[in-house]
């Protein structure tokens, strides 16, 4: 990715978004809108939103947490005390020519501040008001803190991971936050499509808990129809649901992942004729421990590169388990231009981060703005009389 900032418009360059979000799922959603061209105005409390002070591994670059930098490019920042009536009035004025308001406070917070959907709707009847929470705007859990690990645990997803005899195992990434962030974008775009057709604005609600339940479409469908799930595996199959030869296998110098390949095909590739006996889905599932042990004993005798070359030649579904060092130099990563160098504030500071995965023939996603310092655009957007320093 070039270090140059684009002045071209993306497919959403006609939109203005007022962003009241913090942490991950909300900022991820509004960053996607910004990457696609929207003018995203991030409304932060004086001193900055919560993620400016806390992030994964307490990592910091250029005076900001890496977690904040990761989800806040292509935005302008306004410092605003939402408890100040004059500031609230000014924000509602901005809402008159805004298209979308996005927030992920706990349920009821925006209403208590006088910034409910109804207040924005009064200022602009066509406004799209998108809110996301931990568990939903109503219900027995509405007041609980919603956080990724808690949602993985409560949704059943955490229970599925790990091997037999081990404790439940969480995903290595914030999967609930990011899956919900994507749904938040989809909900906003759907509401905008409805607005374009009917002239009607509306409220859109998402929550981490519901989205993480929805993420388990296959798994819960199986459970509802069969009343049970397979026992957690004894080997590193990668999933309780997997049939042989699914799994993560040690090699002489690393690990190799195998996926949906018939055992007889794998047997021919590895010169293991005994695998030909496992030629149905039922046999590949019920004998997956035996198959894993046979394959593991062979793969540990050679390097990952050796086996990958051989397996791909036989159209076996295989891939190396890559470290971040490997990912950074992966040729497909380079071809897809997956990392961007993003400015921080108005100075020379830049950080490297995953860029937008979207591809458009006419209106490409682009780096138009870096990550703003807290309140960097307050005077520009609210005016000096409301600037809070």
Description:
There is one protein chain. The chain folds into two domains: 16-215 and 335-386, Rossmann fold, CATH 3.40.50.10540; 255-320, no CATH class. 37% of the residues lie in helices and 15% in strands. The chain has 17 helices and 13 strands. It has a six-stranded parallel sheet, with helices on both faces. It has a three-stranded antiparallel sheet with strand order 9-10-11, covered by helices on one side. The protein has a two-stranded antiparallel ribbon with strand order 3-4. A hairpin with a 4-residue loop joins strand 9 and strand 10. The two termini are 35 Å apart.
List the defining traits of the structure above.
389 residues, alpha/beta, Rossmann fold, six-stranded parallel beta sheet, three-stranded antiparallel beta sheet, 17 helices, 37% helix
What is the residue-mean pLDDT, rounded to a whole number? 92
**Structural class per helix/strand content?**
alpha/beta
The CATH superfamily of the largest domain is known as Crotonobetainyl-coa:carnitine coa-transferase, domain 1
Spans of at least 5 consecutive residues with low confidence? none
Q: Helix proportion of residues, in percent?
A: 25-40%
Number of domains: 2
Q: Report the total helices.
A: 17
Distance between the termini: 35 Å
Give the tally of β-strands. Answer: 13
Shape: elongated
Q: What proportion strand?
A: 5-15%
């Amino acid at each position: 990715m070039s270090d140059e900032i684009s002045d071209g418009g993306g497919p959403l360059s006609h939109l203005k978004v007022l962003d009241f979000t913090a942490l991950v799922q909300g900022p991820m959603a509004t960053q996607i809108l910004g990457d696609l061209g929207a003018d995203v105005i991030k409304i932060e409390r004086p001193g900055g939103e919560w993620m400016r002070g806390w992030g994964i591994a307490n990592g910091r670059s250029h005076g900001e947490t890496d977690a904040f930098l990761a989800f806040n490019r292509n935005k302008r920042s306004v410092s605003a005390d939402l408890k100040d009536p004059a500031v609230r009035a000014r924000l509602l004025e901005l809402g008159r020519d805004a298209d979308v308001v996005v927030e992920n406070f706990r349920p009821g917070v925006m209403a208590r501040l006088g910034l409910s959907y109804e207040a924005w709707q009064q200022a602009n009847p066509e406004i799209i008001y998108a809110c996301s929470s931990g568990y939903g705007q109503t219900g027995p859990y509405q007041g609980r803190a919603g956080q990724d690990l808690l949602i993985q645990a409560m949704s059943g997803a955490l229970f599925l991971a790990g091997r037999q005899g081990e404790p439940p195992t969480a995903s290595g990434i914030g999967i609930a936050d990011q899956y919900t962030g994507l749904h938040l974008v989809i909900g906003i775009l759907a509401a905008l499509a409805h607005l374009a057709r009917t002239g009607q604005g509306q409220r859109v609600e998402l929550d981490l808990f519901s989205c993480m339940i929805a993420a388990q479409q296959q798994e819960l469908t199986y459970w509802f129809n069969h009343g049970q799930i397979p026992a957690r595996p004894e080997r590193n199959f990668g999933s309780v649901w997997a049939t042989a030869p699914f799994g993560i296998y040690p090699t002489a110098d690393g690990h190799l992942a195998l996926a949906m390949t018939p055992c007889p095909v794998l047997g021919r590739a590895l010169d293991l004729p005994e695998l030909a006996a496992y030629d149905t889905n039922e046999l590949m599932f019920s004998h997956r421990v035996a198959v894993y042990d046979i394959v593991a004993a062979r793969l540990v005798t050679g390097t990952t590169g050796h086996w990958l070359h051989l397996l791909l030649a036989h159209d076996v579904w295989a891939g190396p388990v890559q470290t971040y060092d490997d990912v950074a130099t992966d040729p497909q990563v380079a071809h897809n231009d997956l990392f961007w160098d993003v400015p921080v504030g108005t100075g020379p500071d830049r950080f490297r981060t995953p860029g937008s995965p979207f591809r458009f023939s006419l209106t490409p996603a682009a780096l138009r703005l870096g990550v703003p310092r807290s309140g960097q655009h307050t005077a520009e957007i609210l005016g000096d009389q409301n600037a809070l320093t």
